[in-house]
Amino acid sequence: MSLDFAPTQPLTATEEARRQIEICNACRYCEGFCSVFPAMTRQKAFADGDLTHLANLCHNCRGCYYACQYIPPHEFALNIPAALAEVRTESWERLARPQALARAFQEKGVAMAGLLVASLAVFFWVLAAFRPESGDGFYAHLAHNAMVAIFLPAFIAPLVLIGLSLRDYWRETGSGRIRFADLLKAGDMAGRMKNLNGGHGDGCNFENGDRFSQKRRIHHQLVMWGFLLCFAATSAGTIMHYVFSWPAPYPFWAPPKLLGVPGGIMMVIGTIGLALMKLKADPELGAKRVWGGEMAFILLLGVVAASGLALYAATGSALVGPLLALHLASVLTLFLLMPFSKMVHGFFRFTALVAEAGKNRT
């Protein structure tokens, strides 16, 4: 183990993370903070794949930074949240297909997402001019078959690309066979956002180094569970349409509305909370160059949820047309950018938790 505290040449993100992790591994003061630190203690030397795994286990709660005695101005100059954030972001970019698009979005995400939403909204607005002669609800503005033809490939293709990225991640990190118990453990960790609990039950201090809070954990859970409810609402609508021959629109007591409305409200509250916290948080403790891409992802999720709720509230009014165009554009943008935006972090972090469960088992 080499503890070279003052390198004579600039280090790459991976090299800098390795330097810092080796120091942390010698100290081990933060061992109970999150999954990163017990995982780190399995070895003394860290290959690139090991650092990729540790970086994706990190949830950037920043508790280790504020507890550390070796942060600047100490000569060790540790900043584990930022070091792992850089490696984590580089792993998403390196394993994505195509890499150039992932790198561009991470650095210019707000502009790219905004331009794509605006362009697609115009597209759907123009497409509405060719709307069918008959149809109820949304289908009075855009035919069901047209929606399926546009959104089905736009949903499946990004998932395939993400699947290929996760396959490469699994190989790079040297992870073994998956067991059902590993999935259950990872699901429990992700569902409770255990790694945002600070290891002591008081939460993390993401936006304020002097105060522990559960706010980030709660906002993340609102977004995650809200998104899953909305996805369940869409799935329920698909089943009702094709299996029970019950097309939209649906009354409020039908499953798509009972699931989708609360889910949308949860996402709006969660994204507002995350955006405000990100504005307050110290950018030096994350990957500064991708701040815009991360904020773009939060805002895009918020627009998807808010436009969906507004569309439901505007039922039967003249606002349905423009709101439908905005909502469909934002949803399609979210799908298309899934492999390149921070949306992919959920897939990578869950995979990292599954891999970690397997490594602990062996």
From TrEMBL:
Keywords: Membrane, Transmembrane, Transmembrane helix. The keyword NADP does not apply. The chain crosses the membrane at residues 110-130, 142-164, 222-244, 259-279, 291-313, 319-340. This is Citrate/tricarballylate utilization protein. It comes from Paracoccus alcaliphilus.
